[in-house]
Amino acid sequence: MMKPEYSAVLVRYGEIGIKSKQTRKRMTALLARNIRSAIKENKLPIEKIRREWGRIFIETSEPEMVAEITARVFGVVSCSPVAISPATIDAMLDVGFELAQSEFKEGLSFAVGARRIGNHTFSSQDIREQLGAKILMELPELDLSVDLSSPQQTVYVEVRNERAYLFAKTVEGVGGMPTGTQGKVVCTVSTGLDSPIAAFKVMKRGCIPIFVYFDNTPHSQEACTDLAIRQAQVLADYIYGFEVKLYIIPHGPDLDVIKNCAVERATCIHCKRNMLRLAREIAILEDADAIVTGEILGEQASQTSHNLRVISSAVCDYPILRPCVGDDKVEILEMARNIGTYKFAEEAVSCCSLAPQYPLLHAKLIDIEKSEKEMDLSILHEEVKSAQIEYLRRGRSEPRH
Amino acid sequence: MMKPEYSAVLVRYGEIGIKSKQTRKRMTALLARNIRSAIKENKLPIEKIRREWGRIFIETSEPEMVAEITARVFGVVSCSPVAISPATIDAMLDVGFELAQSEFKEGLSFAVGARRIGNHTFSSQDIREQLGAKILMELPELDLSVDLSSPQQTVYVEVRNERAYLFAKTVEGVGGMPTGTQGKVVCTVSTGLDSPIAAFKVMKRGCIPIFVYFDNTPHSQEACTDLAIRQAQVLADYIYGFEVKLYIIPHGPDLDVIKNCAVERATCIHCKRNMLRLAREIAILEDADAIVTGEILGEQASQTSHNLRVISSAVCDYPILRPCVGDDKVEILEMARNIGTYKFAEEAVSCCSLAPQYPLLHAKLIDIEKSEKEMDLSILHEEVKSAQIEYLRRGRSEPRH
User: What is the structure's pLDDT at A381?
Assistant: First the structure.
């Protein structure tokens, strides 16, 4: 069987299409740039990237591999390897037939889709009818049937003036908005399931993540930091064209202070307030816009609506984004499977040995602040200075405004 | 065909099951209470609600209607009308056969599921084999086949000591955590798609919503307020056993002040800061824990990560929860369809005529604060006082801690 002569990848984007002309132009330019970074990084060939008709076309000699990579770039809803032919009935029938022969599976229903822009001697309906008939007649061995309302497979022909673009398969993209359409955000990540999902969600909306992991040694198992790095790397691998850093902050000394000065039942409240303050230091250092956490209402005692208020008041000048705050655990698990972070859940290690058995459900801010007065919080700046920085991705370090 | 003699509803809950014993007890009690409110409100009969074996059993003479209502109560993962029989093989076979006869559809595969606790002369496997054989042999007209790995329909038998609970259908529940396991939260709702989803998400996690709608008259179409009330009512109807209020705050006078004092391109930033301040007033009045908004990163110019920071800084002492901040528009649309708020999107009315054509993407906080100094913000308290309050649901007005 002849392999179809694909020569480009057609990229579809979603939400960008409904933006104002000016915003759309800026965002598609960024999307094209990020796609180029992804292709180059994977050492795949690329001739040219064109933006037209609300689509992006990538000319390449490896369209199938390029489509797989492109589908992983935020902003891409789907993409298809395309074959290009002259806009004549004979040429389109030949190429369309080749595609069906190569991509169609036995025993399934099919349809031909066609759209047309420009002046031609044929209509879209002519293409649908003639290509459909040719496929049905000349591929009897595939035992195909026609189903116009819900076909199991389709050949599409898009005619644009003197050229026709044909495709028969579509790779689903990761969706969202192009990385860099939003600013940098500090994503606090642990070894758990929720914080990577929270980070992924804001990354998907176009933010550039700065990951921060709090290393609780000696109050955590040794494997924790390594696990956190590997998990952050999975997330960072969704970012193309931008630098991604992971700050590993020694958090043990702070936990010692908390252990000594705070009521045991309030340990997690103090710890979380402290982590927010440290995340704020990183936000200042990195010129980020927000702090992102994986908190879910009611998942832990420290995450009651009441305690979220007590925790949040530790940082006032940065918004704390909690994209998972209203998600159920089942939804989190499904997303973790899709994203590729679920596998880490199986390595379940205990990353804090100080969590109390009966944590406070309704901490009083006044008590918490009183305890904090007894703590030496000057330590914070030192910890940020002694943070270890891992570069998970190389690229541009600032969003383009 | 005989209708099976259902006499109870078996209720399954999810996340509650993995809580500590103490928390689980508190939460199942609240769930049982909310279910009772839902059934009573719908004027359905209820004999008794029992909590046992990690399940809730509702004894009622209308199990099928009660199951439909119960499935809408937050915290319920699924529920099934059940028939109860003595734990003898003969009795279970009779009842199980009746269920299959009544519920099974023609031509599909089936299986029998069985679990057993207690001392009996038969095993779970005995039940599966004998009931399976009886159904297959005595219902030839249904043309059934056995499929143990992925059956299309199933009869379940749960034996608990001297009683057996049998069921053959399951109603999917709304999931989440029981209303009142979290505190009250102020949910700002507009006539748009996003804010109702944000409210629903925190409600699903157990929060009691206080809805706030900002009436922009004369800068909005007249239909807006009515639309907002109807939309909030759809949401409120998911709450059982607790009071739900909607504050309608006259926001037109503030918009006049903003229009006169602010740079046009910053209108939405000022408006959102103002709405947060008003929401905070309601939070204080209602003893709420947080403010909830429908903001989505990058969806509008006022929702860039940068602008979210500028907007957020208007309120420091309450967390601003944005459960949709990392969602795509396609995800929002799907949820709106499931929840029942999508229909309002078709009534699309313009609820603010002041939105600028070229809004600021990167507002400077210092400029915003300077403009605000020229505004008379004393007006805020007056507006909250003159708010109209709609009672969308009657019930307990405080969570139980």
Answer: 66
A/B interface, count of CB pairs below 8 Å: 145
Instruction: Encode B308-376 in three state secondary structure.
Output: HHHHHCCCCCCCEECCCCCCCHHHHHHHHHHHCCHHHHHHCCCCCCCCCCCCCCCCCHHHHHHHHHCCC
Summarised one tens digit per residue, pLDDT across range A77-86 is 999 999 999 9
C-beta separation of A59 from A8 below 8 A: yes
Yes or no: say if A320 and A314 are a contact pair by the CB < 8 Å rule.
no
Q: Which residues pair with A213 in a beta bridge?
A: A248
The pLDDT of residue A386 is 86
Yes or no, beta carbons of B308 and A328 under 8 Å apart: no
Q: What are the φ/ψ torsions at residue B216 (nearest 5 degrees)?
A: -85, 5
pLDDT of A400 reads 62
| Token pair 């176009």: residue | A206
pLDDT reported for residue A291? 98
Does B205 or A379 have the greater pLDDT score? B205
| pLDDT above 80 for B53 | no
Contact residues on chain B for A204, CB-CB shorter than 8 A:
326, 328
Read off the tokens for A63: 């369209």
pTM of the model: 0.93
How distant is the Cα of B217 from the closest Cα of chain A, in angstroms? 27
For B4-39, b/e burial (b = at least 16 CB within 10 A) is bebbbbbbebbbbeebeeeebebbbebbbbbbbbbb
Angle (deg, nearest 10), helices B365-373 and B305-312: 40
* Closest by Cβ to A330, choosing from B14, B181, B200: B14
Q: Which residues pair with B109 in a beta bridge?
A: B145
pLDDT at residue A62, rounded to an integer: 96
Domains in chain A with CATH codes: 6-172 (3.30.2130.30), 184-393 (3.40.50.620)
Of B305, B317, B324, the CB nearest to A289: B305
**Which residues of chain A are within 8 Å of residue B291 when distances are taken between CB atoms?**
none
Phi, then psi, of B50 in degrees rounded to 5 = -115, 145
Interface test with A, best of B19, B197, B297 (most A CBs within 10 A): B297
b/e burial code for range A315-327 (CB count within 10 A of at least 16 → b): beebbbbbbbbbb
The complex's ipTM? 0.92
Compute the distance between CA of residue B292 and CA of residue B286 in angstroms, rounded to an integer: 14
Q: Which amino acid is at A85?
A: S
A220-225 LR contacts (CB < 8 Å, sep 24+): A220/A349, A220/A350, A220/A351, A220/A352, A220/A353, A221/A349, A221/A350, A221/A351, A223/A347, A223/A349, A224/A191, A224/A349, A224/A351
